[in-house]
Amino acid sequence: MANLLLFITRSFFKLCSFSLSILFLISCSSFPSTEAYDPLDPNGNITIKWDIMSWTSDGYVAVVTIYNFQQYRHIQAPGWKLGWTWAKKEVIWSMMGGETTEQGDCSRFKGNIPHCCNKHPTVVDLLPGTPYNQQIANCCKGGVLNSWTQDPATAASSFQLSVGQSGTTNKTVRVPVNFTLKAPGPGYTCGPAKIVKPSRFVTPDGRRETQAMMTWNVTCTYSQFLAQEAPSCCVSFSSFYNDTIVPCSKCACGCQNTSQPGSCVESKASHIAPVVNSYTPLVRCTSHMCPVRVHWHIKLNYKEYWRVKITITNFNYNMNYTQWSLVVQHPNFDNLTQSFSFNYKSITPYTAINDTAMLWGIKFYNDMLLEAGPLGNVQSELLFRKDKATFTFEEGWAFPRRIYFNGDNCVMPTPNVYPGLPNASSHQLTSALGLLVTLLAAMALLFGHA
Hints:
alpha+beta, Immunoglobulin-like, 2 domains, 3 helices, transmembrane helix, signal, lipoprotein, glycoprotein
């Protein structure tokens, strides 16, 4: 009897340990990852290139260029902020095309005062309209950078700085450390600076090539989890063959805080109080509490084509989304015939599969998504050609697999609530009714023989 009790006790503890292990694995998988890898843009990053162009009596003159190599994530107003920590006691004597946010303590200098004496400087871009004698090429855009897919010509930003007390040779100069990039908020993690082969430059006449004295690169990658605590957008569905509108999931981007008045704005509010940080979302009171909603409506079905309407609605009273972008993953994008009022470009992270498209507004027409209100939406229609081997309206095939807005993954409805076909709905209703009738008949038979 004692051996049996011991066996049962050991078995119980083994079962508990196994159960706890399973629960631990499930809990770990339920937490969002902080990794910056994006399956739709696996090589996307922001690269900072630091080129020393010439030496001075106590340092060097360098050109720093920020390249946005991300396919669909751009940097919008108020623009980027680039920071670092000097390795020694460097100062910035002067700058062109950018400026530091603080001068720091320059009291040890007499006469010629540096532009910045801060050990941890933060640089911002100059605004459009800056006098020409303070500009260099690719500067003065207010820190706004387009994505590489939207416009490669405006996906880079540069500034020039004259650094002192740094050393005047490749062996005495030390690269800065602890680079940070805000665009305009958190989300980017920058690696260490790596000395690379000096950059080469071709003169305007194309007949001569020069090179930098020294070059180092810094790579920064984006993580949505680090950028904000909650998602920033959600997706809703509807279709011509079903009266049901599938709304954004409840509390998709957070729940209303009923104990804190003013945490969201009622749609009929006549006055909106100003917010200290105007870039903090102040959203309309909704069940989903998302700053942006993307609605996918299956509009029409033709013999050889089918048509979809996309509507993007801004619920954020504190933000005009300039140069917005939308990335949609759907298997029929390899047969997209026309996009009526959005720009379109195919994105193929894996060349054999063409199922992802980037959409963005037409300049001066709908490239700005205005803040919440009557004009706070943009819309377009997409016309797809049917592939008879794959096309179907069944089982949610006609709805997108994934949607990104401004590079952030939007919360999708769960598949069980997708609008169903009428015959599928009636079939489910008939099945449920048949099951109920069978159950009632069985109960009547049971009680009849009791």
